[in-house]
């Protein structure tokens, strides 16, 4: 079962990506990692092209306090709303090994659950 927030204001992890990112399927592994942990997510495109800014915005908006940002160059940032914008928890790149991207998504879910990271 795919858990997506879409139109509902349910607690979820927000993944914000730059509107300049052409191939959004490149971050599917991240979403699958979040799904593995059973946490809902919502994906939105924004005009911003800074992964730290995007992830921080997502973390601040999320009732779960976790956000992921992806810029047009493929930089991925995982943020927690208790940390400053310039101190993300994890960073990766869309060109990394798919397992790294999946682990980043799973770690976003694990942060919500309060369990150890992969």
Automatic annotation (TrEMBL):
This is Glycerol dehydratase reactivase beta/small subunit family protein. It comes from Clostridium sardiniense (Clostridium absonum). The lineage of its organism: Bacteria, Bacillati, Bacillota, Clostridia, Eubacteriales.
């Amino acid at each position: 079962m795919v858990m997506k927030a879409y139109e509902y204001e349910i607690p979820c992890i927000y993944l914000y990506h730059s509107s300049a990112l052409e191939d959004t399927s490149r971050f599917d592994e991240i979403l699958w990692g979040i799904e593995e942990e059973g946490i809902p997510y919502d994906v939105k495109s924004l005009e911003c092209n800074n992964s730290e800014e995007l992830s921080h915005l997502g973390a601040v908006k999320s009732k779960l306090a976790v956000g992921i940002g992806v810029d047009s160059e493929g930089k991925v940032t995982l943020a927690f709303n208790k940390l400053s914008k310039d101190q993300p928890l994890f960073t990766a790149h869309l060109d990394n090994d798919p397992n790294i991207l999946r682990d980043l998504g799973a770690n976003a879910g694990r942060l919500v659950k309060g369990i150890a990271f992969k």
